[in-house]
Request: fold
Amino acid sequence: QVQLVESGGGLVQTGGSLRLSCAASGRTFSNYAMGWFRQAPGKEREFVGAVSRSGDSTYYGDSVKGRFTISRGNAKNTVYLQMNTLKPEDTAVYYCAAQSKFYSTSYSYTAAYNYDYWGQGTQVTVSS
Reply:
């Protein structure tokens, strides 16, 4: 029902920046919280960050706090992940996801199983 398409991945040097975009279409997208996750080879899917339905609140995993910023576009049909001060350990496939259910606690954003729709991912590679 909801389709998500990531873009903006690529190869960047350590310390560089990238901005990922997640374009969404479908019913009630503007009413969904949106999250970013990443998965490196041989590792579990990791929470990167999330933005609330309104766009007023953001949440981040400990490993990216202070470096990554999540935001909604003005029309709220696009979600961005601005990644600064990139490190080799940031290398992964990055996925955006939509959360259709309403949750009352911020902790709900961190769990992949609370998301209903996923993009196909975009590769981010940080060279050292």
User: Anything to note?
Assistant: The two ends are 40 Å apart (CA to CA).
